[in-house]
Amino acid sequence: MSDPTESGFCCPDHSGPQSATRILSQAQARAARMRLRLTPVRLRTLEILIAAHGALGAYDVLEKLAAEGYGTQPPVAYRALNWLVEHGFAHRIRRLNAFTACAHPADDHAAAFFICDRCDSVTEAPAVAVTAALTDAAQAAGFAMERATIEAVGQCRACDGAGA
Q: Of 42, 50, 116, 154, which cross-links 101 as Cys (Cβ 3.0–4.6 Å)?
């Protein structure tokens, strides 16, 4: 398997200033192009996800939003997170019951997520070939696939090296 960073997709820590700025700029441009309203709470939620070194649970996001005066009720975070996921600015990582910023929000794309079972970091990588194979398998089984989330569990480069 090739290194996800070779294709331009981020490593687990996409919070560096250049990557964070690029991700946010792509998201804002997409929102404008699609005529979507990136409200202050949605924008701040996205910024929180971008700054995270892995996926965050809704209550983690809510805690940060509440500290900044955006409200203390769970629907504040859940509405923003669900909107971000629905419009391709974030992804839900089901294994962790958490959310992560999309590494490339400029366009719709098939993605796979590599989850470190030691540090819970999440790496997003292109998954066009995997999605095509899954679609073919579904069709062969007489199944009409609507969506798929591809999540693989193992160790990130940092944790794998630490265990050696």
A: 50
Token pair in block for residue 5: 């960073």
Other CB atoms within 10 A of residue 36 CB: 16
Phi, psi of 122 (to 5 degrees): -130, 125
Last residue of one domain, picked from the residues 101, 128, 151: 101
Whether 62 contacts 100, CB under 8 Å: no
CB 77 within 8 A of CB 59: yes
Domain span at residue 51?
14-101
For 133-159, write each residue's pLDDT tens digit: 999 999 999 999 988 889 999 998 888
What's this model's pTM, rounded to 2 decimal places? 0.82
75 and 119: one domain? no
